[in-house]
Amino acid sequence: MPTQLRQPGIFIAGTDTNVGKTVVTAALGLALQQTGARVGIMKPIETGSAPDKMNSDVHRLRTVFASCKTVDVQNVYRFPRPVAPLEAARTAQQRIDVDAILDACRTFAVHHDYVLVEGAGGILVPLTETHDVCDLIRLLGLPCLIIARTCLGSVNHTRLTLRGLRDAGIPVFGILLNHVDTTPQEQQASTVKLIRELSDAPVLGPLPFQPHMDSQWEDGINALANHSTISEVAKMMQERNL
């Protein structure tokens, strides 16, 4: 296996799919870029995305940073079927090569001050028959920022994700909570309270719910890049030289 990354960076993983990983990745990339840093954003694997699909995560990221000369967005595998990477690759009659991803990330990282690597789904989503997202994080040697919802069920998902990362020996940078829907305020408040109380990692946020994010993507990301939670994550990365 290739050696671990040496450049400062974090792996952005979710407790599940559709928790806001790409939103956070884009906003954090923009916040870091505003400090004058060269930022590399890597989305190694994306499923449910044909090459010409305009609403793919990779396309959205590239749209945000189209005019930023100090931010690069790269991708290794894109599959059209919206299923787990292992099955999406099988359907496309391909095989995901974890070594190829590690090589691509290592080569990409050396040209940037910070590297943000965004995962696919949760940490136990299979990439191959023998490797999952958690294995990829461990092999890259990056600390992990967990993105979690504030809705009902997130206490369980967040604690399971945290336990899985700890068991794998992966440093946890923090847990970033994200309001992704209109879950009743009482449930949101209870979820946030318990995650803060029961987690042994820094808990950040929550980020506000943005109902028009899909239709106003660039405006939404620009607003979030200046949100206190994203600014706090960027500051933590700079202070820890991550």
The strand line-up of the biggest sheet is: 3-2-4-1-5-6-7
Largest sheet: 7 strands, parallel
Corresponding CATH superfamily: P-loop containing nucleotide triphosphate hydrolases
Low-confidence stretches: none
**Structural class given helices, strands, pairing?**
alpha/beta
- Shape-level CATH architecture: 3-Layer(aba) Sandwich
Our count of helices gives: 9
Question: What is the CATH topology descriptor?
Answer: Rossmann fold
Query: What is the N-to-C order of secondary-structure elements (H for helix, E for strand)?
Result: EHEHEHHEHEHEHEHH
What is the helical fraction, as a range of percent? 40-55%
Rg (C-alpha, Å): 17 Å
Number of E-state strands: 7
Distance between the termini: 22 Å
- Proportion of beta-strand residues: 15-25%
CATH top level is Alpha Beta
Kindly give the count of domains: 1
What is the typical, i.e. mean, pLDDT?
93
What overall geometry do the principal axes of the alpha carbons give?
globular
Structure description:
This protein is α/β, with parallel strands linked by helices and 242 residues long. The chain has a single domain, classed as P-loop containing nucleotide triphosphate hydrolases (Rossmann fold, 3-Layer(aba) Sandwich). Helix content is 40%, strand content 19%. The chain has 9 helices and 7 strands, in the order E-H-E-H-E-H-H-E-H-E-H-E-H-E-H-H. Strands 3-2-4-1-5-6-7 form a 7-stranded parallel β-sheet, sandwiched between helices. Strand 2 (39-47), helix 2 (57-64) and strand 3 (71-79) form a beta-alpha-beta unit. Helix 1 crosses helix 8 (217-225), helix 1 packs across helix 9 and helix 6 (154-167) runs parallel beside helix 7. The longest helix has 14 residues, at 154-167. The radius of gyration is 17 Å and the shape is globular. The model has no long low-confidence stretch (mean pLDDT 93).
